[in-house]
Amino acid sequence: MISFSSFYQQIADSNLQHWLETLPSLLGEWQREHKHGNLPKWEKVLNKLHYPEADSLDLVDSVTIGSGRQLAAGQQEKLENLLRLFQPWRKGPYHIHGIHIDTEWRSDWKWDRVKPHIAPLTNRTVLDVGCGSGYHMWRMLGAGAKRVVGIDPSPLFLCQFEAVKRLAGQQHPVHLLPLGIEALPPLDAFDTVFSMGVLYHRRSPIDHLLQLRDQLRTGGELVLETLVIDGDENAVLVPQDRYGKMNNVWFIPSVAALILWLEKCDFTDVRCVDVDMTSLAEQRRTDWMPNESLVDYLDPNDVSRTVEGYPAPKRATIIAVKNQPNHDLI
């Protein structure tokens, strides 16, 4: 069974210690709920990941664990077969003991767009909301973060993260908790909070922004990346049914509307630092993610539109700073 005891120990003497009042019971409940699903099967795979400590680790320019020279061909093949049991791999890529996990998303491209605009992460405590398998968490650690905590309720993402962590070395201060942000109390403790690719999945985007604000210390930085449309501060797309075949897309605002939302939620110094169309090279089907991908979500006769006729995915990155709370919004 995946254990969170080391995380409890690490935050016991930190500014996150009050989280221990609710966290163990929440995670215990999560484990009981997944007792009869795929989690036990994936945990058995994790228990087979006994490999020597990697002879090298690069988290600055990539997520590369091991030079590829440590394992014999048979060992490498066995490791690859084990890692493939966690398919589909969506966020990455990872390079592990010479194995290239070619994920659906080139998440390194997103990181390269975001990183130049954020406050330096050196010695900062970071929260990554909707972190997926944790790719960006490793890059945050490589950028100097003191501690990185990711939350995502998916058991598959948790097991993918645990697989990478066991191969990278358990001592690294990076942890994934299988929770949604609605399960977090107002912690007011993180120096930087990331929410990338989450907002449009929330039924109440304003509540999501307030939840993000409540995790930051005053003066802390929010890094928000989400789908946007063109238009003024009143422009918001509400898909009638699906968007890009996704049935859980609720609100896609313009950049101007998103900035207004953040300002109404007591964020200051709100600015858009990047707008980028999602390309067919950045999100695509691979040998490690053989399911449908972006090309299947777009109109085959007009890739500027989704199959439903909406504008094709465009993503913006917004940076904002938490101001003193306005209790009228709480």
Record the strand order, biggest sheet.
9-8-7-10-11-17-14
Describe the largest sheet: 7 strands, mixed
> Helicity range of the residues?
25-40%
Point out poorly predicted stretches.
Answer: none
C-alpha Rg, in Å?
20 Å
Beginning-to-end CA distance, first to last residue: 38 Å
Give a count of the beta strands, DSSP E runs of length 2 or more. Answer: 17
Structural category: alpha/beta
Keywords:
7-stranded mixed β-sheet, alpha/beta, 4-stranded mixed β-sheet, 28% helix, globular, 330 residues, 10 helices
How are the SSEs placed, and which strands pair?
Elements: H1 5-11, H2 23-33, H3 39-46, E1 57-58, E2 64-65, H4 73-84, E3 91-92, E4 94-96, E5 99-101, E6 105-106, H5 107-114, E7 125-129, H6 135-142, E8 147-151, H7 155-168, E9 174-177, E10 190-196, H8 205-215, E11 216-227, E12 236-237, E13 252-253, H9 255-264, E14 267-277, H10 294-297, E15 298-299, E16 302-306, E17 314-322
Parallel strand pairs: 2-4, 3-6, 7-8, 7-10, 8-9, 10-11
Antiparallel strand pairs: 1-2, 4-5, 11-17, 12-13, 14-17, 15-16
